[in-house]
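haha ok so turns out i had the wrong file open the whole time. this is the CORRECT one, sorry everyone. sequence first:
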Amino acid sequence: MFFDSWTELARVLLIGSLAYVALVAILRISGKRTLTKLNAFDLVVTVALGSTLATVLLSKDVALAEGILAMALLVFLQFAITWLSVRSPRFREMVKSEPTLIMRGGEFLDGAMRAQRITRDEVMAALRSNGVMDASQAAAVVLETDGTIAVIKGADHEAAKPTLATVQKP
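then structure:
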């Protein structure tokens, strides 16, 4: 019930350690861009790498060499997509999304929110997590290409914050 055999546990320890070292080496060689979450493709690669590592660890049907090749292939494909995106505006348009303005001057842009399937509650949660308690304090709210919601605070919000120049010394 808890394990099949000691050899299986030893296999997980050995294969897991080797697969982990291989993944770290692949990621170091491929550079920082591989694990960024700038767009949907980056997220897919990160999740797929984790899934591949788990499969190598837990499935006797997948050899270590196959798993390492699969991880290297995922990183190479992600590298190829980003390389092409940087060099070809047409390719970039096919694979990358654009940020979407979902609130301007404290006013919800319902059409944009509906198109992006974002609710007012989600926008308000993003405002609160950025220290904005009233929607009118936000100059803009943008749904970024990686799915995060960016809040650009209005000038009134910034003016309300004490600064070194406005704090009186005793």
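The beta strands are 100-104, 107-108, 138-143, 149-153.
again sry for the mixup
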